[in-house]
Amino acid sequence: MTPNQNLKQYTLKEAAHYKIHGRTDETQEPLPLFFNGSGIEVNVTGSELWLDIDVDFEVHEPWIWTAINGAFMSRQMLSPGTCSLCLFRDMSPDTVKNVRFFRELQAMSEDDACRLLVKGFRSDGAFLPVKARPFRLEFIGDSITSGEGTYGAEEDMDWLPMYMSVSHDYARMVSDALNAEYRLISQGGWGVLCGWDNDPRHNLPSCYEKICGLVSGEMNEKLGAGKPYDFKSWVPDAIIVNLGTNDASAFDQPAWTDPATGRTFKQHKEPDGTYRQEDILRFQQAVIDFLSMLRRDNPTSHIIWAYGMLGYDLTLAITDAMNTYQKAAGDTNIAFLQLPNTTESTVGSRMHPGENSHARAAKVITEYLHPILMSKN
């Protein structure tokens, strides 16, 4: 390959135009991409474009995907170190290319060393303004929203980053169909009250009001992950919550024991298989409290609780909690959506929803949201 002698190097501050996707601390340079669905978008002329990045991890390597002019172009695992990724070359220099670079992997609460930083660009073209999309959507969820199972064969059961994605995720499908920008806050195994294993520390509401409360450690603190999130900086037209699947699993798992204190936590079933009433009420209070938090932080957003891609166990508990919240708060700007369950023909790897299951869920959400968003325009 003959080197292009016309390439100019730009830090992010030196690039004339680019768009940041996902929750992050935009004062940082290099720019951290904490979440799945976070990334950089540019409109650029020229024949060649490279992205300079810095990567590290101890256990879970980041994956990324790219698109050019709205078409999926590549997906790959990243190695640790500082490097340049070629996003395109030998293209017609005078045409404007829309290029999107996104993190596939969820924020990794189990690997404090996992990082993906964007340092800048190299190109022989000019950076032009990126047009804002008319709508904004925020998705909050667990492994389903992290796209776990959307890549790989049905028999693949290893818990690996390569099986997680945004590129085949219902959140991206909904957003593309509605021409919306999107942000994701998701973590596999977590719930609204507790994780799948009854760990009460693993609940999304406890992390929601920080830029990225899912990660910890000195490096992430320096990158701004623990800062309070500025909700006025990016106001979603709609918030889609997909939680409850792991809360349902907790009822069938052993008690969690805090290794430091010996304290235990457990969601119980009665001998006849029904849910213990006090534990259901505890779960429902978590739903009510989270709805109250979401409304406090997002006064104008339409809130959807979408549930059902991996069973309907807690549907009644969730809808009853929503009704209780709605009556007490007088909040009519919320709704419950039942999503199609994953079937033998739509399952993906790790016994999770596959791409076709995500497409079915995306269709339900899109058809519901379309008239609501159109009425705001």
Q: Count of DSSP helices?
A: 6
SS class? alpha+beta
Q: Which sequence of SSEs, written as H and E, runs from N to C?
A: EEEEEEEEEEEEHEHEHEEHEHEH
The count of β-strands is: 18
Shape call: globular
Helix content: 10-25%
Mean pLDDT: 97
Segments where pLDDT lies below 50 for 5+ residues? none
Largest sheet: 6 strands, antiparallel
Q: What's the alpha carbon Rg, rounded to whole Å? A: 21 Å
State the end-to-end CA separation.
49 Å
User: How much of the residues is beta strand, in percent?
Assistant: 25-35%
Task: Describe the structure using short key phrases.
377 residues; six-stranded antiparallel sheet; alpha+beta; 25% strand; 20% helix; single chain
Give a brief rundown of this model:
With 377 residues, the chain is an alpha+beta fold. The protein is built from six helices and 18 strands.
Any overview of this molecule?
This protein is of the alpha+beta class and 377 residues long. The chain contains six helices and 18 strands. The protein has helices at residues 170-177, 218-222, 245-250, 277-297, 315-329, 355-376; strands at 8-11, 19-21, 31-32, 39-44, 49-56, 63-68, 71-77, 81-88, 97-103, 115-123, 127-128, 135-141, 180-186, 238-242, 256-257, 264-265, 302-307, 334-338. Strands 2, 4, 6, 7, 9 and 11 form a six-stranded antiparallel sheet that branches. The longest helix is centred in the last third of the chain and has 22 residues, at 355-376. The chain starts with 7 loop residues before the first strand and ends with a helix. The mean pLDDT is 97.
